[in-house]
Amino acid sequence: MIGRIISHYRILEELGRGGMGVVYRAEDAKLKRPVALKFLPPELTRDKEAKTRFIHEAQAASALQHHNICTIHEIDETPDGQLFIVMDCYGGETLKQKIAGGPLSIDDTIDIAIQIAEGLSEAHGASMVHRDIKPGNIMLTDRGIVKILDFGLAKLGDRTKMTRTGTTLGTVAYMSPEQAAGGTVDHRTDIWSLGVVLYEMITGRPPFRGDHEPAVLYSILNESPEPVTALRSGVPLELERITDKCLTKDPAERYQSAADLSADLRRLKREMSERTSRPRPKNAVMPRAKTRVLRIVAAVFGTAIVLLVLLAAFNIGGVRDRFVTGRRPGDTGRIESLAILPFVNIEKDPNTDYLSDEIPASITGSLSRLSNLRVVPRTTAFRYRGREADLAAVGRKLNVRAILTGQVHVHGKDLSISAELVDVANDRQLWGDRYSLKLADVITLEQDIITQITDALRLRLSATDRDRLAKSETENPEAHLLYLKGRYFWNKRSEDGVRSAIAQFQQAIEDDPAYALAYTGLADSYSILAAFGIAAPRDVFPKAKAAASRALEIDRTLAEAHVSLAFILQHYEWNWLEAQKEYKQAIELDPAYATALHWYGLLLLTMGRGTEAVATVERAARLDPLSLPITASLGTVYLSMHQYERAEAQCMKAIDMDSSFAMARTVLAEVYVQKGMYEKAIKAWKSIAELPTRTPEDIAYLGYGYARGARMDGARKILAELNNQAKDHYVPPCFFALIHAGMGEKDDAFTWLQRAYEERDYYLGDLGSATEYDPIRSDPRFGALLGRMGLNPLPRAISAIE
What we know:
Elements: E1 5-6, E2 9-18, E3 21-28, E4 33-39, H1 48-62, E5 72-77, E6 83-88, E7 92-94, H2 95-99, H3 106-125, E8 138-141, E9 146-148, H4 153-159, H5 169-173, H6 177-180, H7 188-203, H8 213-222, H9 228-231, H10 237-246, H11 258-277, H12 288-301, H13 303-314, H14 317-325, E10 337-340, E11 344-345, H15 353-367, E12 374-375, H16 378-381, H17 391-398, E13 402-411, E14 414-423, E15 428-438, H18 442-456, H19 463-470, H20 477-490, H21 495-511, H22 516-531, H23 537-554, H24 559-571, H25 576-589, H26 594-606, H27 610-623, H28 628-640, H29 644-657, H30 662-674, H31 678-689, H32 696-708, H33 712-726, H34 733-743, H35 746-759, H36 780-788, H37 795-801
Parallel strand pairs: 10-12, 10-13, 11-13
Antiparallel strand pairs: 1-2, 2-3, 3-4, 4-6, 5-6, 7-8, 8-9, 13-14, 14-15
Helix pairs in contact: 1-4, 3-7, 3-11, 7-10, 10-11, 12-13, 15-18, 15-20, 20-21, 20-22, 21-22, 22-23, 22-24, 23-24, 24-25, 24-26, 25-26, 26-27, 26-28, 27-28, 28-29, 28-30, 29-30, 30-31, 30-32, 31-32, 32-33, 32-34, 33-34, 34-35
């Protein structure tokens, strides 16, 4: 192979070989860069079905873009049918080579494990499981960066029902118990394998050994490894606990996510660093004279007096804290999860509701930027608006340790606020205060409450965290109050509310032209007018883009602005790749931003990347479990992936939270259509269309339901009603196309779809993944339209295979 040219790659040298193929260093003749080419053994892809599945798996793996995962550039085939993968080529050594020199330092072990965990977290978030994490598949570059190799190949081995041919004893040694037993595996099998690697870095040897494979498998399934502290001195007990948790045989008892494992490793790293840099207390070692005195005291007065002397003379913090604060020994006192509930408006004056809602929301937004605090998103916390809440029950429901509540009283331009921060796990107040101030001082009020919360929770703030909290989006109190009003009206999600929000945001910008958040609010308001079918996209989306772009000119670190721009790129410009870039930038800036993940997941669905869409929206749902739009959207994703039972269950979950939520009922009705239950679907859509708050979209879906149920007279009546409405205000062309498609009137459907294309109809962006268009999907005009929009002509085919 050396010297051969494959495609546009010149083979330079062999780098290594193993059961999953041979790797060569090569030169990319086009881009003049070094690459690695991995040629797969022919027996692995000889089966046509296995080969197809592998290509899909490798395509998914190539979408993983993370600094701890080896980048896949291309999958190709030689003229004689041999598959190869083109990857980045790195200088350095494998972790296997490094461990061959003996156990690693504790610091290096933790650093490497953190990087592996973070790469796995990214992959697991995209529903990719490696299945073969081992030192030989971990590359350590010359710059100290960890790169995980061979994503997708282990699954190929499983799918082709490999025997032990091509595997090694080393691979078996890293198998999880469920993998070794031939059972179903998920992302937790990678966490087990990382635990084995962690053990080996610490001790220099794997935890499960034997003279032959059956002996190793028996050990994995039935034996417990020797504790790492018994094999090496100086290992922190916390590192042993982390390793043991990874190596728990029951997957339910292991770390449930690589992100949780990474968080524990990072916490240990910080604590080790602090212990190293902390000066040694003068009384750390008890002088012999004091020891003799205590022995005498113990002999004469008993042990209880000695304990009191110890408390007074030697300041034993753990015991002292238990008496003073009720904390257990070793408890740092830090609380790392928080929910901020909407404040109570004492006067119940609707004109001041915006303060009781938006002050807590503003504080939530600021604290959500902290790296070591999980803050429940607004949409979930605000499910408790106006309710007398049992804080302990709310804490359990939201899985948080602390809750902030408050009351608001407004009299003219005077504002009175009382706030209380409670440790709900221990039923104790952490902080409470009452403020009397002018409305114009609301910015100062928010900043003071934020400071009090971070102090009371005993958070350790990095320099970046302190900068984030110190950052003020505006110093103009009037502009800030206008922004709060704007968000309050925007969250009403009605036409009148959105138009009121636009007026508030515009006035805020007049008062402070450098207020980036106000521009973001303005962009979101214009966008939602198109998203609700209220205004023609060409009338509002350009205004939305101008506002979002201006927000980013002012502040590139504002995650909300990146999401606002991404939404416009996705739904108006159909610039899918730029939209993806903006969503990913927002998520990088704020990994806990559920809305960014939610909308990014729907973009992935549109692009035909269904598996990633499921993982991304599920992640959003975990972050914001009581969000009605996210809950229902997850039903939409399941529906598009033909997972009808899961879709139905997800919609019912949203309906249980709020029976009036129309979106969940709409998705549920489409599930009924897909299951052939047309009358049930019509009944669901009819219940929505008869509401006083019905929209043209609700009416259109009822017409579509009639059409799919072969009730053509009903469908034509709805078409007539929409035509009458279109005389007075904008009605999206897709609503007409939807009904004609349901009726099987293809020519009329494509006439309206062409009009939708020309008008940049918001709803056209869902064309590729929407099951509603299945009756016309096989028509060549359908694929051609998707192609003009820059989409894969058959994204639903990909979803079906997945």
